[in-house]
Amino acid sequence: MCTIGGVLIFGDRLDEDRAKRIEEVLRMVIIKGEERGRDSFGIVSLSRDGELNVFKSKERPSVAVSKMPRMITEDTVAAIFNNRAEPTTEYVKVKNEDDIQPMIGERIVVAHNGTIANDKDLESKFGLIRRSKIDTAILPPLLEKFWDGSLNGFRDVLVNYVVGSYALAIMDTRRPGRVWLATNFKPLYMAWYGDLKTLFFASLDDYLIDDWNKPIWGMPVIRRVEPYTAMEIGIDGTWSTVSLRKEGQVKRRVLVIASGGLDSTTAATYLLKQGYDVALLHFNYGHRAETQEDRAIKRIAEFHNVPLFEVNMDFFKIVRHSPLLGDGEINRVDEGREGAEFAHEWVPARNFVFIALATAIAEAYGYDYIATGINLEESGAYPDNEMEFIRLLNRVMPYAVGPNKHVELIMPVGHLVKHEIVRLGLEVDAPLHLTWSCYDNGEKHCGRCGPCYMRRLAFKINGVKDPVEYELPKEIEEEFWMGARPYEVPKRPGQ
Asked: What is its EC number (predicted)?
């Protein structure tokens, strides 16, 4: 709803050249940040002796900056600004300086992006006096009343008193040379300009860079302030962070996206052994092996005595364009090897869709984690099995769920290839005999598609005969499994 940003300047007092260069970058950040706020602009800089320099304007930031005096001088150690996008619920027809951020209290200065939903309740309950009816104005007196100056104390105020959304940049005139940053789900990024010994921060990383095409050695170091995190940063080199999630908020309940195959079954069993409260989530999406996979997942859920969610997804009939959905033939070249190494059977956006629906179910039913059976082996052919896919989705997950909700993707076998997954499955007593891996829907595995090829070879590498049967000639099977030890069916948990 706004752009906030600012600087923290390290090192000795500024010379004229360095001060000008910092000012230039700061003005660039302000102007680029107009994208997120055009209704007013304000900036406050802080000197080493705790003096404030204030400039506020009712004009849009790009116009206001052209009239703004120098804000970075030899004595400046920090500055924060706000480009306001005025919410409909906070509209002020006639603004004065106190209605323009940053909000200034007796000693606390706050730049805020978001909405404080309980500002009126805080005002009446604690007798707080604020200088504007705009919601952000409640934060300086609130902090001055309840904040003990520590990072944990800052956290406690935000967690225990503030209801709403926020990214915050805060200065304290009693402690110049420090800034406090905090965010629940509103974005906030930092950029370290090493040549200037200055930390810049703003609502989006794009605002902190003048040219993304520069060589890497000419770029500042960019870092995101992680959602639900508060930070204290000092020019003395101190750097501290603390979580804004309430204690006990994150539990060990995990929803496992489970096909009924080797990977997800091993992942689920491993998580059970690690003490997680596991439930299985299975999708029937009109694919060729739907009947066998559905039978397998029911048996696996019964074996582990865990809840099973099943979702029927008829809309994949519209997607089509995959041999698994009836368009084209399964690749069986070189007994399935080619199918194991190239994504012939790719289903458009399947895992992306699965994870989106799993996120909704996990949030609704209170599961803090979603586990998948993605693995290193299949990432060679399928991009949605690459670990980076899950890592990047986790970066957006705080924006995909409700405020103060926690849903995180985990990949217990994401770093393993197929024979390592089989080995792990054997070690944790996963019911591998109940799993279904084949792309076809026969009574036996076909033995000639990509998953069958990988499965058979993975068991052979481990010296164990695969417990499932294949539609392959008896003599081929006897020769292939020669010397392998029999598979030992694990006991059900509790037996």
From this structure: 6.3.4.20
